[in-house]
Amino acid sequence: MAAPEQNKTPLEETEPEPRPRDTPEDISLEAAANTVAFHPCRDVLAAGDVDGDVYLYSYSCLEGGNKELWSSGHHLKSCREVSFSHDGQKLFTVSKDKSIHILSVEEGRLVTRFSKAHNSALNSLLVIDEHLFATGDDRGELKVWDLRKGTSIMEMKQHEEYISDMAVDGNKKLLLTTSGDGTMGVFNIRRRRFELLSEPQNGDLSAIALMKRGKKVACGSSEGTIYLFNWDGFGATSDRFALKAESIDCMVPVTESIVCTGCTDGVIRAVNILPNRVIGSVGQHVGEPIEQLAKCHTGPFLASCAHDQKVKFWDISSLNSVIVDDYRKKKKKSGQLKSLSHKAFGTGEDFFAGLREEAAEPKDEDSSGTETDSD
């Protein structure tokens, strides 16, 4: 007698492994994001939006790899800036509601609150070291805070308009500010005193970055111009460079010579400083003004946030090997803005085929194009 036929079970369907990507997927928020920041040592990113909400995400270069870790709705009005502490354990946030919040990164729990930190809406934030941080408001007041004392240790109002951005030198001695009044401010943190204001420039000064190993200061403006200052020569600009773009709203240094700028036209440009030249475009938020850029500490990524309610990631690893020769010796013939990323609307050179831009010629009387990276 033949043995009974055994029932055959179909092969179990296995889920396909997540596909690897060049960059993490976009993060979509419920409202337009004002600010974005990378964790100093983990693949974690924070963002704040116009509703006052703060989000913490882990990100990955795998399909579906991004995960929301927590969100916080402590602020009553728009969250203007977020920044991690240097050890990565705390997240600082400032808001239009005039408050400063310090949250625990692990849980999103509110650790410290300064309810009425300023008399006006807060606009900018800079973590200086493990104890000190600085804040600037819409009316031009600057405050430096000491967490050990739980209060501000320096309060000064030298700007006539909002403080847009801040930077500090490697020795944590001089704090530099940019303002809507068109000036750059210099403050001595150690001596707790005001040093000077630069000559006013055309339009608002909207962003600041230290370049050339701290020997140059680059300031972006609402006129689409980058103004350059020599270190210890803060009173007047040493050079200027017009991008022929709309307002530069944010900028972040990528190398000692290359800075990425985010503009109102939605394009992220990589710009070489001295010699001054637009290298190309890293990416864009189509037709949406870019609010902030952040450079990743653990990978070759740039993050951007804009009015399209998205945080996007861009691969900027190619910029580390870019060498720009003297502009007067080598002038690019094509007026097309070169694509530095194959992400988004196509691949290769057709990415920004519709965008036309020519780098501005340096003036004869200034030093554009004559200084080399060895300076």
UniProtKB/TrEMBL annotation:
Keywords: Nucleus, Repeat, rRNA processing, WD repeat. Residues 1-24, 356-375 are annotated as: Disordered. Coiled coil: none annotated. WD repeats lie at residues 115-155. GO terms for biological process: rRNA processing. Residues 356-366 have a biased composition (Basic and acidic residues). It is found in: Nucleus, Nucleolus. The keyword NADP does not apply. Pfam families: WDR55 (PF24796). The keyword Endoplasmic reticulum does not apply. One of its GO terms (cellular component) is nucleolus. PROSITE patterns: WD_REPEATS_2. Belongs to the WD repeat WDR55 family. Nucleolar protein that acts as a modulator of rRNA synthesis. Plays a central role during organogenesis. This is WD repeat-containing protein 55.
